[in-house]
């Protein structure tokens, strides 16, 4: 069972999130709070797997709260849930320790998906946001943020995305198969995914195929 704490200053929002999450038999909402003071007070008593954190929650701003969570409660995985612009805040919140960023304008179904993914220690952002973050709108050059891929890693990812198996990738790049497996593992780590399907989704977001 995934234990979730909701931190949002709007009672209706907290209730709505709780109802959506508890429609899943795998998720239990163990607490909800309206301020960061309440959040840290409750975290002294309970240990959620995931904290759904509103960017504009009162008392301490979202970024500072993320840093404090990372320092004082490193096992808790924060998922930002905000009405603020994704393009402006997603990157800064991820750098500050969030495991994901979900807009309040996103489909409700995304909440359950995001909580499950974050609970496993994986990064969650929507494909639409990944696309916008991946490329600088002015130059159309790839942004690096947490996708610091070497040119060889990009080559391997392109071939995997085109449907090539490890052996075919190895032959195409004149590498041994074990080296390709190492590159694949490194790509999954850098792109915060744990399976080939999600890896290929990231490749699509980077417009590699």
Automatic annotation (TrEMBL):
Superkingdom of the source species: Bacteria
Protein name: Response regulator transcription factor
GO BP terms: phosphorelay signal transduction system; regulation of DNA-templated transcription
Record bears the keyword Transferase: no
SUPFAM superfamilies associated with the record: C-terminal effector domain of the bipartite response regulators (SSF46894), CheY-like (SSF52172)
Transcription regulation listed as a keyword: yes
Pfam family of the protein (one): Response_reg
Keywords from the named record: DNA-binding, Phosphoprotein, Transcription, Transcription regulation
Extent of the signal sequence: none
Residues covered by the Response regulatory domain: 3-119
Residue span, HTH luxR-type domain: 142-207
GO molecular function: DNA binding
Cited InterPro entries: CheY-like_superfamily, NreC/VraR/RcsB-like_REC, Sig_transdc_resp-reg_C-effctor, Sig_transdc_resp-reg_receiver, Tscrpt_reg_LuxR_C, WalR-like
Organism in which the protein naturally occurs: Flagellimonas allohymeniacidonis
């Amino acid at each position: 069972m995934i234990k979730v704490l909701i931190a949002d200053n709007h009672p209706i929002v907290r209730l709505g999130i709780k109802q959506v999450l508890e429609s899943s038999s795998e998720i239990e909402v163990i607490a909800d709070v309206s301020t960061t003071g309440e959040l840290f007070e409750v975290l002294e008593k309970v240990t959620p797997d995931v904290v759904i954190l509103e960017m504009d929650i009162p008392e301490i701003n979202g970024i500072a709260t993320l840093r404090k969570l990372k320092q004082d409660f490193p096992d808790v995985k924060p998922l930002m849930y905000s009405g603020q612009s994704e393009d402006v805040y997603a990157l800064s919140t991820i750098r500050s320790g969030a495991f994901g960023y979900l807009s309040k304008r996103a489909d409700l179904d995304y909440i359950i998906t995001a909580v499950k993914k974050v609970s496993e220690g994986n990064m969650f952002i929507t494909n639409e946001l990944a696309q916008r973050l991946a490329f600088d709108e002015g130059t159309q050059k790839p942004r690096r943020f947490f996708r610091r891929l070497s040119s060889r890693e990009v080559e391997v990812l392109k071939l995997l995305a085109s449907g090539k198996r490890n052996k075919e990738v190895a032959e195409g790049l004149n590498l041994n198969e074990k080296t390709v497996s190492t590159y694949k593992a490194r790509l999954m780590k850098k792109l915060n995914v744990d399976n080939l399907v999600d890896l290929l989704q990231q490749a699509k977001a980077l417009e590699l195929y």
